[in-house]
């Protein structure tokens, strides 16, 4: 029996999780009056990683906004019901053993308690404008759900969506499953039916970022994380199934053959992506709970970075361990925006093995730009320890791996330097061309005496400071003993 089979996650709906954060002083209720343009994002950013921010009446809007409720690794583990050290293993177990969803009728689906047909998105929902040069209001925490036109299997992803008009929105689709579905529909001369889900529980949001084969429904990964089948409801205007307990659902179609200008937008690398022609979502209906809550993610802050990094870490760990069982842990550093820089802990058994691990990691996900492999005495979740390993165990002329001209992230501005200088946007198939760098920061398998033995003090990790510190005693250092 896996860890997930033996327990049920304690927080499987958004409102229960927010109540828990509020009860533990991790949710700040903001006074009315915060403007949807920049001010909501500014306040949430200042609280990032310390408290979630709840805006009861942002910009005078009747629908409240929440942000930052998944901005610590420890919080995400807590929502899952596991220790932080068990987070990746629990997510990996869920990804490899998904649980089919259970469909419920509209009468039993809170997300369909209120129905708006022919809706105006801007009037119904409080959509913030986040960064200084963003080209208008954006939905940043919307899970986009669509069906494969060939097989009918669903895919879930989080995509940025610019709201252009009451019934038109522009969407960025990177070269992943949703874009493949859309291209197949467009080839057939058809629109792609979609649902944009806002205000899902923390584990369903996390599951949406699982790196899975194209015909794997991430909602089933959410069921595994919950420890029971996820309740889903069928949309009213198309056949897409959505989490029944979500706050808000926008139903619509990505139109074939239609494009509109989208961007610039401040993305996770903490830079703006260019204004380009993007695909268009036509809105057919909006459904929501009574008194719904709108979730927004402040781009490039901890909630954004962790939602992307933790599922990737779990997938990368499983991928590496299939070829290298002596890979013990991985970490996508926040300094590397939770995507680009990977640290790998390895119990090295052969010289040259770290370079093989580096190459395997580059093949696992095209976003990865730098890999550092360290020994099992280095904590990969501590950037200072990783830097120490590079400083003392790495030599560039023998331990450096460089690969030129590989596919990287199109959102990394350094991959499009030429276009940035000329003002021209490269065609999609030429975007994101990147060099990859790997660093073998491991010690030799064998070495003389204690040359590479890490200094430690016996008992340092076990000493009970509370038992030794005399908290009530004060010393007067100005007094002269014996006077």
From TrEMBL:
Q: Which GO terms describe its biological process?
A: ubiquinone biosynthetic process
- InterPro entries on file: UbiD, UbiD-like_C, UbiD-like_N, UbiD_Rift_dom
* Protein's recorded name: 3-octaprenyl-4-hydroxybenzoate carboxy-lyase
Q: Give the UniProt keywords, A-Z.
A: Lyase
What PANTHER family does UniProt report for this protein, alphabetically? Answer: 3-OCTAPRENYL-4-HYDROXYBENZOATE CARBOXY-LYASE-RELATED, FERULIC ACID DECARBOXYLASE 1
Locate the 3-octaprenyl-4-hydroxybenzoate carboxy-lyase-like Rift-related domain: which residues? 103-300
Q: Name one GO cellular component term.
A: cytosol
Which Pfam families does the record match to this protein?
A: UbiD, UbiD_C, UbiD_N
Q: Which organism is it from?
A: Bordetella genomosp. 10
Q: Member of which family?
A: Belongs to the UbiD family.
* Domain 3-octaprenyl-4-hydroxybenzoate carboxy-lyase-like N-terminal, residue spans: 18-93
- Domain 3-octaprenyl-4-hydroxybenzoate carboxy-lyase-like C-terminal, chain residue ranges per copy: 307-441
User: Its Gene Ontology molecular function terms?
Assistant: 4-hydroxy-3-polyprenylbenzoate decarboxylase activity
Q: Which domain of life is it from?
A: Bacteria
